[in-house]
Amino acid sequence: MVAALLAVALVSACGSGALPPDGTTARSSPVSSSPIPSSPIPSSPIARVPAEASRSATAVAAATASAVTGAGTGTPTEGSPPLLDVRASRLRIPALGIDSAVLPSQVVPDTSPPTPGCPPVGPGAETLTVPERGIATPEFAIEGLENKVWVFGHSRWLGEPGLFFALQEMAIGDEVFVDGLDRTTGATVRGLRFVVDGLYLTDIESGGALVLAEPGSPPPPKPLVFLQTSVREDGVGKGWILSPTKLLAKARTLIQGDAGDPCKYLLLFVRGEAA
Question: What is the pTM for the complete model shown?
Fold first, then answer.
């Protein structure tokens, strides 16, 4: 495994409150087209906290500082196209009616308390901030993400469906469009088109292996996009935020060990390849 593994930005503490039974939501209805507040990312984020409405939430990433760099480190093979190094600024998913700004996410120390009955977060761990409402992407390039765009957001916040609650409705063949900024050249990139080729149900470890490349391994031959949200928080008695019926029918399960283990935080990843 990667020595400085960024295990996955775990969109934790998605807020208390019930959602419709079986995670019901509709395709092709507008999910969000209104502007996102200018400063939705908490200035003092708390990671891996319980889901009470009074607690703020961010993404959890079991990372070390050496995992974050100013630019991608992958090296394309001779004659191959340049690697994609785009910081997403807007995401469109026509099938879901999503058209939303993507905010920059910062790496901060993970000072969260441990989940009762579960192993504590290791010393020196870091986390990525996540807006309470809306979606985000790492502000700076991260080793292992060469030729990839990674966008994450809450499935639920304060009992209300988040923007990425609708990810459970996605299907193979759906289109994803990304605008952004090329980190290497500073050039504006518009309308990068990806086609969904897989949905994956993971825990933190298998999610990290899905998204991140091992050091020295070649980047994917075509750019990829990964969209991520929470399925079930860790902790005794936590229920699924998204519909188990829908996900188990369409998503490939990569969870290592017992999916019912309350110390496992479950995630949904939607993967698309550049078209």
Answer: 0.78
